[in-house]
Write the structure tokens for this entry.
Amino acid sequence: MSDQGRIEMQSTVEPTYGAGIWHFATYVDRYATDGYGEPRTVLDAIKLAGKVQDLSVVDLNWPFPPGGISTAEVRDALAEEGLRPIAVTPEFYTGRFAKGGFTNPDPAVRREAIDLVAASAEVGRELGVDYVKLWPGQDGYDYPFQADYTDLWEKSVGAVRELAQRFPDMRFAIEYKPREPRNRMVFSSVARTLLAIEDMGVENVGVLLDFGHSLYGGETPAEAARMAINRNKLFAIDVNDNFRGWDDDMVVGSVHLMETFEFFFALHDADWTGVWQLDQFPFREDPVEAARTGIRTMRAFHRALAYLDREELASAQGRQDALAAQRIAKRALYRALAESETD
């Protein structure tokens, strides 16, 4: 089959590209507690996001950093930059919830975490977002014998079920992660998260698959995506990269180029049409240029999907011929990457 024939077979619809608004924030770590770069509010971050060509949607932390910023102010800032809010991410993973949000042993603190998420869902309704992202980073444990695992599971499942039933018109996407800040997190893998969603018995809860979290957890991200898609539970994705030893949130494709291409192939092959969204932390890089670089790479992946000979790949996979399959994928990917440098 000719290249032209392959291109005509594939969809030419460009994906929508997005980013977490924190991509444009000021970062701190335990050494540079004064931060990398000047302090920025969410309104400052929105202005920076507006400078990134092809960036259409953003995921917003809530309460809006650093506090005291209204929903109306955020809505106006987004409109001025031509951006749409796709999600709100409630911050129930801060020091206040050090012993857990949904799993906190104090019923009052646990209720505070649930109510904070509920308040963020109300804000999401006002803004017209697609989903509320749940990242229960403090829900888990650190030591053997520290907690009753069944209790942690039931509290986590019950809290999300309560929220889903309280907001039946809103979708909730659980972002799983193996660890950090807890040594072990309740929603730590795609399989555990899907099992928890099954236990919830609600339709409006799904998975947000963070590519870096999947790598860090020892998964194959393309396989994890297939598992969620096959159950109609892949609500959203975040993409970045790392060295597998930590959640480095590096620029897309900077380390695991072939695995990232396979991830997008899995999405495209399953007709998944969600936003291709950045979750990068450019500590020492210019945030606007880091976002542009990430989107440029994702656009190359999209182009490579058009160049990929599906019949030839299916034949190689049917034989489990690893070398042939790699050769076919590399031929499409390297051509697209080379072309992206001249666009």
Remarks:
- The chain has one domain: 14-307.
